[in-house]
Design a protein that fits this description.
EPS_sugar_tfrase; about 475 residues; five-stranded parallel β-sheet; alpha/beta; transmembrane helix; EC 2.7.8.31; Undecaprenyl-phosphate glucose phosphotransferase; flat; Undecaprenyl-P_gluc_Ptfrase; 3 domains; Rossmann fold
C-alpha cells in the first residue's frame, strides 16, 4: 500500500476499534451484576481477542478496501459479513474455550448488534463526509491518462462529472501531439518516465484500446519503475453494465459484462425454497377452497374447460406450458390473419363476464402456482410471453432475450410498476424489458417481498391496466 493508503487504513481501523470498545463497555455495563468489577483483566483479554479477530475478519472480507467509486451498499455488505463472522467466532469462543464465563451467552448478540449498528452509522457518515470533501478537492488521487483518444477522453469526462470520486487528472500522454488539451498534453509514451518524475501521480490509467502489446508492456514497466499503480480500461468497456465483474480464471482475468445475484446457486436455492413454502401454504389455506369456487363460476358462465393451457417461454429459452383460469370464450381467435398475436384489449369481446373480473383482480393467474411447484416458473420474475409475442419481441426489442436467464414469474418488477396489459404502442415492451433486467441485476430477498406485497395490494384495489 502507498503511504496515503496506509494512513487511511489505520485511521479506519482505529475508528472501528473505538466503536468495538464502546460496544463492549456498554454490553459489559448491561450484564454486570451487583458488586462486579467493571473492567477486569479477563474483560481486557476478551476485548483484545475481539479486536484481533475483527482485524483478521475485516481484511478477509475486504472491509478496508477502497470504496471510493462504489455505493455504500458494497461497504454495508462487507460490514454485515464481518459482524456475522465476528459473532460466530465469539459464540465458538464462549461455548468451547470460556465455559466458565459467568454471564449470559446472549451478551455476544448484544455486543455484535451494537457494533453492527454503530459501525454502519459511523462508516456511512464518514463516507458522506469524504464525498463532500473530495467534491471540493480534498483527499484526491492524481491520475495520468495514457491515451487521448475516445476512450481516454471518456474516462476524463467521467472524472469531471463525478468529482465526489476524488480523482484529479494530472494530464495526458499520447503518441500524437494533442494541442486541443489546453496544456494538459504532457508528452509521448517515451517521455513517461520523465513525466512521472516531474509530476505527482498516484495512478496511471491506460486508455489505449487495441494498442500494440509492446507499447503496453513499456507503459507498465515505466510506471512500475516509478512505483505507480497501473489501471487499464478494458477494450470492451462500452459493453459493460453497472453489474460487470472481473474474476481470475486460472491466471487469466475474465470479465463478465452483466451479472446478477441469481448467478449464485445459494441465492437460487433460497429463492426456490422461499417460493415453494409460500405456494404450499397458499394451497393449504386459500387455494383449497378458492379454486373450486372459481372453477364453478367459470363453468356456469361459459362452455369450455376451466383451465387454459398456453405455450410460453421460460428460463434458457425453453418452452413451458403456462396454466391460467380460462377468462375468454372457448376456441376464440388468438392470432389475426397475419399470424400476429391478439393481445387482450379494453372491452375485448372475447372476455367472458366472470373472466373480466378474474383478469381485473389477477385471479386468472393463480393456477400458475402449479408451475411454481413444477419448477417451470418462479413466484417473482419476468412475465413469460405467448409464442407469437415472444418471437416478435426477440427480434425487435433490445436485450429481450436476457430476461430468459432466470425463471419467469407469476408477478414481477415490471408488473408492479404498471407495465402490464397491451404493448402495442412504441416503447412499451422495451420499458417492460428494461424493468425486468433491473430486477434480475438487483435481485434480493427483500425486493421479492416488496413485489409480492405490492402485487397483493394491486389485486385488492384492481389494476387499471388489467383487462
Amino acid at each position: 500500500m502507498k503511504p496515503g493508503a496506509d494512513t487511511n487504513f489505520y485511521i479506519r481501523l482505529f475508528i472501528d476499534y473505538a466503536v468495538l470498545t464502546l460496544a463492549f463497555l456498554v454490553t459489559r455495563q448491561y450484564i454486570a451484576a451487583k458488586g462486579d468489577v467493571f473492567f477486569s483483566g479477563f474483560n481486557g483479554l476478551l476485548l483484545c481477542i475481539s479486536l484481533c479477530a475483527w482485524t483478521a475478519i475485516g481484511l478477509f472480507v475486504h472491509l478496508y478496501d477502497d470504496f471510493r467509486t462504489r455505493s455504500f451498499a458494497f461497504e454495508f455488505v462487507a460490514i454485515l459479513k464481518a459482524v456475522l463472522l465476528h459473532a460466530s467466532f465469539f459464540t465458538f469462543l464462549f461455548f468451547y474455550c470460556f465455559k466458565f464465563y459467568p454471564y449470559p451467552r446472549t451478551s455476544t448478540l448484544l455486543y455484535n448488534a451494537l457494533a453492527f449498528t454503530i459501525i454502519t452509522i459511523t462508516k456511512f457518515v464518514v463516507k458522506q463526509s469524504l464525498l463532500r470533501l473530495r467534491a471540493h478537492g480534498f483527499n484526491a488521487r492524481n491520475v495520468l491518462i495514457v491515451g487521448a483518444g475516445e476512450v481516454g477522453m471518456s474516462f476524463y469526462e467521467t472524472i469531471l462529472s463525478n468529482d465526489h470520486f476524488g480523482y484529479r487528472c494530472v494530464g495526458f500522454v499520447d503518441e500524437e501531439t494533442q494541442t486541443h488539451l489546453n496544456g494538459q498534453y504532457l508528452g509521448k509514451v517515451s517521455d513517461l518516465g520523465r513525466i512521472l518524475e516531474e509530476h505527482s501521480v498516484d495512478d496511471v490509467v491506460v486508455a489505449l484500446p487495441g494498442g500494440p502489446s509492446a507499447m503496453l508492456e513499456k507503459i507498465v514497466a515505466l510506471s512500475e519503475q516509478e512505483a505507480k499503480r497501473v489501471r487499464i480500461v478494458a477494450d470492451c468497456y462500452r459493453f459493460c453494465t453497472a453489474t460487470a465483474s472481473m474474476n481470475l480464471f486460472g491466471n487469466l482475468p475474465l470479465l463478465t459484462i452483466r451479472t446478477s445475484p441469481l448467478d449464485d446457486m445459494a441465492h437460487q436455492r433460497f429463492k426456490r425454497i422461499f417460493e415453494v413454502c409460500i405456494t404450499v401454504v397458499l394451497f393449504i389455506t386459500v387455494f383449497s377452497w378458492l379454486f373450486p369456487i372459481i372453477a364453478l363460476l367459470i363453468k356456469l358462465s361459459s362452455r369450455g374447460p376451466v383451465l387454459y393451457k398456453q405455450e410460453r417461454w421460460g428460463m434458457g429459452n425453453q418452452k413451458i406450458i403456462c396454466y391460467k383460469f380460462r377468462s375468454m370464450i372457448n376456441d376464440c381467435d388468438m392470432v389475426d390473419a397475419h399470424g400476429r398475436y391478439l393481445q387482450a384489449t379494453r372491452n375485448d369481446d372475447r372476455v367472458t363476464p366472470i373472466g373480466r373480473f378474474l383478469r381485473k383482480t389477477s385471479l386468472d393467474e393463480l393456477p400458475q402456482f402449479v408451475n411454481v411447484l413444477q419448477g417451470d416458473m418462479a413466484l417473482v420474475g419476468p412475465r413469460p410471453h405467448p409464442t407469437p409475442l415472444h418471437v416478435e419481441a426477440r427480434s425487435t426489442v433490445q436485450h429481450y432475450m436476457l430476461r430468459h436467464q432466470v425463471k419467469p414469474g407469476i408477478t414481477g418488477w415490471a408488473q408492479v410498476n404498471g407495465c402490464r396489459g397491451e404493448t402495442q404502442q412504441s416503447g412499451q415492451m422495451q420499458k417492460r424489458v428494461d424493468l425486468d433486467l433491473w430486477y434480475i441485476e438487483n435481485y434480493s430477498y427483500w425486493l421479492d417481498c416488496l413485489i409480492i406485497f405490492q402485487t397483493f395490494m394491486n389485486m385488492i384495489k384492481g389494476d387499471k391496466e388489467a383487462y
